[in-house]
Amino acid sequence: MDTSNRAGGAPSPRSWRTPGFVVACGCLIAMLAFGPRSSMGLFTAPLSEAHGWGRDVFALSIAIQNLVWGIGTPFAGALCDRYGPALVLGISGVLYALGLALMPYADTPLMLHLSSGLLIGLGLAGASFGIVIAGFSRIVPPEKRSWSMGVATAAGSMGQFLFAPTGQAFIAAYGWQTALILFGASMLMIPVLASSFAGAGGSKSAQAVTGADIGFAATIRQAFKHRSYVLLVTGFFVCGFQLAFITTHLPPYLTAAGISPGLASWAMALIGLFNVVGSYMSGVLGGKMSKRLLLCANYTLRGLCTALFILLPVTPVSVILYAAAMGLLWLSTVPPTSGLVVLMFGTRYLGMLYGFAFLSHQVGGFLGVWLGGVLYERVGSYDVVWWASVALAFAAAVVNWPIAEKPAPALAAEAKA
């Protein structure tokens, strides 16, 4: 008798797909998926120089990637809610691998936009930690949900820590083209790991699912009528703007300021390493204190840290300190954001509703990456975007302040944290 897909959708303790094993596999998926994505800035200079393109070409490609990632996430989340995460993660891992492998052969801007923009964006939509978090919500008890969200996000950051210096080493040893192919090959592990989620089924089998079962369309309407959800989605835009801008443009910004490419890659790695701590602690704290206040504190500290960084001279010490500080804050918005979605609407449509919040995040990412490239080519400086990032951080803190931390009124009868 198969005990891996019982009425609760959670794996049986007697199955090899135990909750602990699934969480471990999900963390590895998050690590693999976020690694190459967070290392794209390392390829900005060599790829642009190889083709004689300005940085705005690669920036537009990554901007498209962010936008496709965002647009695709609600659909990937809806498929996850309906059929479970295994299928979504598996297919998306293949798309991700294909996009990375085709990037070295993209000899026109259009081909680059199709590979690094469209294909990788689609792959990320279904293979990133948002889908992993939705899968975890089906197999862990409510009191550990915030913790599991923090663990998944921290695992993604570990991918950034590991892939950034590895990518720079691959570029130095084999060239940027081979480095991308090696990254693509590593993404083929995602479908293998995704099979562990086969016991965490879709909405029909998940007894652990909470929230009103009013259908996808009605849920979307109720969500966007709920003021706190709209505020949450709006604030998440800023997170995307900042992260995408820094991921793509911080390495070339640092090298232009006289910092070695090696230290620039380690700065990205340090962001990932420190965010392992930041995301984990955010998940732990989110289960004990106000998620709204965690978000307000995060955005305020981001604004202060970035303002200090661009006001002070760029030195190895300032780079390391900024990377460490931003690392603690980097993806620490994800556990409280996804936790608030669960609090408002339950877990039944978490994949889809978090997906819409993430779409806002990625629209911000599109603008952060694209504006960074365009303004650099036109004025030779990133200063305008740096200061826009500071202003948006403080604005996000203000936007998150009025959020009501309770179930949405229309779903209050069934929605549970």
From TrEMBL:
The chain crosses the membrane at residues 20-37, 57-79, 86-106, 118-140, 147-165, 171-194, 229-251, 263-281, 352-372, 384-403. The keyword Zinc does not apply. PROSITE patterns: MFS. The keyword Membrane applies. Keywords: Membrane, Transmembrane, Transmembrane helix. InterPro entries: MFS, MFS_dom, MFS_trans_sf, Proton-linked_MCT. Residues 19-408 form the Major facilitator superfamily (MFS) profile domain. SUPFAM superfamilies: MFS general substrate transporter. PANTHER family: EG:103B4.3 PROTEIN-RELATED, MONOCARBOXYLATE TRANSPORTER. This is MFS transporter.
